[in-house]
């Protein structure tokens, strides 16, 4: 190795080390702080667990309604964003050419660079517009927050799909058409299965982003107490808002501890989504290959 | 023996009767009897604990009422109540003339919150003149030695531009004077308390309701930032917390406002570190 080789080796190696240390340190800190309060009381306060889980009695001091709200919200946002993201990604990777592709790419980049608070304001403005025009009863709700979050995570799914499809060698992408498969058959049987790993990676990123975002839901329907979500047109609680609110306004050490507990739960929630996605990925590979 | 029993009985009766006012207070909740429906509240984050506790009591008393409390800050509170998205919009400041006229809002104060200067508990400085405070925050006074402390640099802490606490502190303690650009910007009362309690050279300001033993309050011109002083009006850096409604409040909103302005509401307000507005 020359001196320069050694330098770049050392630089890359130490960067990787620093990143790992930072991530482990952060996780360790949250686990240490939040782990102390992890227990039934963190979730349900002084309410009996089973009655609280089933929503028979309201939970006042626990984060259970926020957990349920976050889960529903994330699933809703992902379900709304997935078809559009997939379709747009496929269009960019397979069908679009020249100027149309450049323009569409520009739009996606623009969307990816939009701060989440702008998305929240957009949702808020949309509700105001609806109220003034043809839906006077419209109000901020779970559906609105889901739609705004879906717009926020759309670029992640589009880019992931596009990159995953473009990463497939051209020869493989052309096998289908050369055997006489239609566009649809080629997409469903050749391109999507091969790109599924990359797409799922993007979906996981997107879901993680949706789970942690506070600014969007702040203006579009999250509240400090709503109980379990009762429908897509009602208010809801969510973990990021609970954490934000506890971090901003805690008055006692125990409230701050609850905040750390909520952080830990959010991390665990994201991690389980990740694991679930991996499991689905493996399932897909087993069936399709 | 019999006498003693009679005596104990009489004592018990006296105790029960002296407790009567506390029980009579619970009749406040009877205002919600027969009411039902949803009451939505949004706005200032500082209001949330009070609102939540009131909601909890009311909803436990009458399960037909559903009260939701959201945050967002004072600005969002005004916008949301103005647009009719919520029944009550909370603000940590008085409404501007423009806001009041534009949306036809009515304000109801329910609590007073003081904003106090604080330093690390080890810092011997416990009183500053107003000019010294202005000098410190403008950056002109850079050492604790200049105001009677150790020969160390002053570390300034301030709140972000959107903070209601910042706006009241700047207006009433600094007479709208400047805050040095070197000041560390903190996002919340809780974070301010932690920052000051961990930095021996720190000075910053936070809601009196948030102050505890981990920080040491600094008097301005001899008046300490305590709840008592804020209550009797001798401590000047105070703000009111408001609930705002668009036009006349509905039945449920009216009952809620009355409840928070009443004796039980005052109790909740004090428990959360604020001063009931009526006192």
Describe this protein's structure.
The complex is a heterodimer of chains A (289) and B (279). Helices cover 78% and strands 0% of the residues of chain A. Chain A is mainly alpha-helical and 289 residues long. Chain A has a single domain, classed as MetI-like (MetI-like fold), CATH 1.10.3720. Chain B has 279 residues and is of the alpha/beta class. Chain B folds into two domains: 37-112 and 240-276, D-Maltodextrin-Binding Protein, domain 2 (3-Layer(aba) Sandwich); 114-238, D-Maltodextrin-Binding Protein, domain 2. The radius of gyration of chain B is 22 Å and the shape is globular. The termini of chain B are far apart. Chains A and B meet through helix 6 and helix 11 of A and helix 2, strand 2 and helix 7 of B.
Any key phrases for this structure?
heterodimer; A: 289 residues; mainly alpha; MetI-like fold; B: 279 residues; alpha/beta; D-Maltodextrin-Binding Protein, domain 2; 2 domains; eleven-stranded mixed sheet; 10 helices; 39% helix; globular; MetI-like_sf (chain A); transport (chain A); MetI-like (chain A); transmembrane helix (chain A)
């Amino acid at each position: 190795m020359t001196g320069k080789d050694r330098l770049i080796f050392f630089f890359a190696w130490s960067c990787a080390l620093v990143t790992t240390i930072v991530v482990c340190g952060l996780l360790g800190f949250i686990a240490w702080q939040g782990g102390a309060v992890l227990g039934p009381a963190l979730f349900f306060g002084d309410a009996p667990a089973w009655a609280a889980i089933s929503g028979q009695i309201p939970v006042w001091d626990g984060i259970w309604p926020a957990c349920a709200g976050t889960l529903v919200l994330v699933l809703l946002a992902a379900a709304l964003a997935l078809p559009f993201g997939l379709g747009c990604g496929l269009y960019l990777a397979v069908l679009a050419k020249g100027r149309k592709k450049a323009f569409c790419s520009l739009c996606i980049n623009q969307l990816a660079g939009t701060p989440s608070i702008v998305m929240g304001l957009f949702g808020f403005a949309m509700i105001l517009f609806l109220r003034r025009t043809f839906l006077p009863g419209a109000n901020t709700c779970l559906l609105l927050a889901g739609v705004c979050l879906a717009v926020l995570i759309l670029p992640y799914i589009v880019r992931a799909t596009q990159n995953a499809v473009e990463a497939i060698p051209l020869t493989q992408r052309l096998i289908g058409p050369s055997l006489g498969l239609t566009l649809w058959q080629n997409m469903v049987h050749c391109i999507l299965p091969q790109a599924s790993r990359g797409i799922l990676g993007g979906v996981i990123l997107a879901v993680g982003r949706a789970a942690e975002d506070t600014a969007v839901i702040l203006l579009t329907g999250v509240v400090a107490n709503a109980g379990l979500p009762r429908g897509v047109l009602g208010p809801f609680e969510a973990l990021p808002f609970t954490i934000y609110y506890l971090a901003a306004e805690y008055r006692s050490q125990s409230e701050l501890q609850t905040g750390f507990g909520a952080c830990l739960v959010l991390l665990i929630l994201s991690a389980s989504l990740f694991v679930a996605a991996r499991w689905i990925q493996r399932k897909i590979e087993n069936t399709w290959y | 023996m019999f006498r003693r029993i009679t005596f104990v009985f009489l004592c018990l009766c006296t105790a029960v009767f002296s407790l009567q006012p506390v029980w009579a207070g619970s009749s406040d909740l009877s205002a919600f009897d027969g009411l039902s429906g949803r009451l939505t509240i949004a706005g200032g984050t500082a209001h949330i604990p009070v609102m939540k506790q009131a909601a909890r009591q009311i909803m436990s008393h009458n399960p037909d009422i559903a009260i939701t409390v959201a945050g967002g800050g004072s600005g969002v509170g005004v916008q949301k109540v103005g647009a009719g998205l919520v029944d009550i919009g909370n603000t940590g400041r008085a409404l501007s003339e423009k806001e009041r006229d534009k949306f036809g809002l009515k304000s109801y104060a329910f609590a007073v919150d003081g904003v106090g200067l604080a330093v690390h508990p080890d810092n011997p400085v416990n009183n500053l003149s107003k000019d010294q405070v202005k000098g410190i925050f403008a950056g002109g006074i850079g050492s604790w030695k200049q105001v009677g402390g150790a020969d160390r640099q002053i570390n300034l802490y301030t709140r972000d531009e959107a903070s209601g606490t910042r706006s009241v502190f700047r207006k009433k303690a600094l007479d709208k004077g400047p805050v040095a650009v070197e000041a560390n910007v903190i996002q919340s009362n809780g974070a301010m308390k932690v920052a000051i309690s961990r930095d021996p050279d720190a000075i910053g300001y936070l809601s009196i309701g948030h102050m505890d033993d981990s920080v040491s309050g600094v008097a301005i011109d001899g008046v300490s930032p305590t709840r008592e002083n804020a209550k009797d009006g001798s401590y000047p850096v105070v703000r009111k917390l408001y609930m705002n409604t668009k036009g006349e409040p509905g039945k449920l909103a009216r009952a809620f406002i009355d409840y928070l302005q009443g004796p039980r509401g005052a109790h909740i307000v004090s428990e959360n570190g604020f001063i009931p507005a009526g006192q």
